[in-house]
Amino acid sequence: MSDKTVTTAADFELFMREFRELQELLGLTGIRVGFLHTPLGPSVRARLRHRPNGSVAAAMLNSELPLLVQGREELIKYYARHEVLHLLLVRLADEARSRFTSVESIKAASEEIVNRLMSALPWDSV
What pLDDT, in 10s, does the model give residues 97-116? Predict the structure, then answer.
């Protein structure tokens, strides 16, 4: 019997749940996110695609990704967290790609990220 399986519907549910939880924690609820459990190729674990204005995105989990049976829950959560952090950076990335970007717009997008993290992180334990 193999110690690896591809991602399952339960893995996908966990991915969505973890993504949404962190999306809310970071205050990114103004971005509508759809989810797909689909083949993404052998080297891709998960992916985030978004429209240039950042209001709509798709978070995808590779349905053909072989995972070890043991420890898979933590890996799925890791992939969801990784992709939601890409969502956090959408505005900054769009500004950086813009032909008409300015130093001020990059600073504003960076400040937005810092403020979201300041609000979300548990500073009582620091």
Answer: 887 888 888 888 889 888 88
